[in-house]
Amino acid sequence: MPDNADRTDERGPIPMFEPDFSKGGGLIPAVAQDFRTGEILMLAYVNAEAWAETLRSGRATYFSRSRNCLWQKGATSGHIQLIRNILVDCDQDAVIYQIEQVGGSACHTGHRSCFYRRLTADGHLEEINENPA
Amino acid sequence: MPDNADRTDERGPIPMFEPDFSKGGGLIPAVAQDFRTGEILMLAYVNAEAWAETLRSGRATYFSRSRNCLWQKGATSGHIQLIRNILVDCDQDAVIYQIEQVGGSACHTGHRSCFYRRLTADGHLEEINENPA
How many helices (H) and strands (E) in chain A? Predict the structure, then answer.
């Protein structure tokens, strides 16, 4: 469990993480990144409850804006995401989940990554070659 | 300029990109990623105007939620971000700017990446070793 006591190292005090949910209506974005390759697999949102559940379970848990409920990634598909490391940005309103993607697909389309298309010069979307899962 | 005519390739029609700003109050998140190393450098937001300006200028342009205005990254610091490629996610409400970071720092703290800290098991933030710029 987190403690609230200040800690220090040779660089000085080590702050507690205090996620800033205020600017995003109670949500912050979480980027899921393959912990081995660095590939960005998806982006979703976390509220305070999803954040707590992610820490408790060690599995990436999000808040679904469309369904308005907690969403443990892979609860239906089996394609869960095991948390290996979490990075936090400078103003504590975005996180990176460095994860192990079970089952090979982060995307509901079956692609390894939700970001499987690139923008062309004339505004279209073309599929990119994916790394092997 | 984008045209609205459908295009096709051997996989079928190639869709136009139609960013979905509806779920985020007019904003979608843009993850800035080093186009060479894949390192995630920052996450910020784009409205329709920032998106158009990014495409027009070839430089990453965001919408600042705190200042409530367009924000061309590096306009003050000189640490601009040159767009090399843009990836789009499955439901067209998040993008990755694959960029060349001029000046070496994406973060206003002087760190190469805004994500320069990791969460420890007891809820603190500790700095990680950064890749050389």
Answer: 1, 10
pLDDT tens for each residue of A120-131? 999 999 999 865
**Residue A120 belongs to what domain range?**
24-127
Q: Residue A119: inside a domain, yes or no? A: yes
The CATH number linked to A120 is 3.10.20.810
Count of Cβ atoms closer than 10 Å to residue A118 Cβ? 17
Rounded distance between C-alpha atoms, residue A73 and residue B35, angstroms? 28
As a whole number of angstroms, the distance between CA A101 and CA A63 comes to: 18
pTM of the entire predicted model: 0.91
Q: Which of B4, B68, B125 to mutate to test the interface with A (most CBs of A within 10 A)?
A: B125
E strand map for chain B = 7-9, 12-14, 28-34, 40-46, 61-64, 69-72, 81-88, 95-101, 117-119, 125-127
For B115, the closest of A65, A88, A111 (CB atoms) is A88
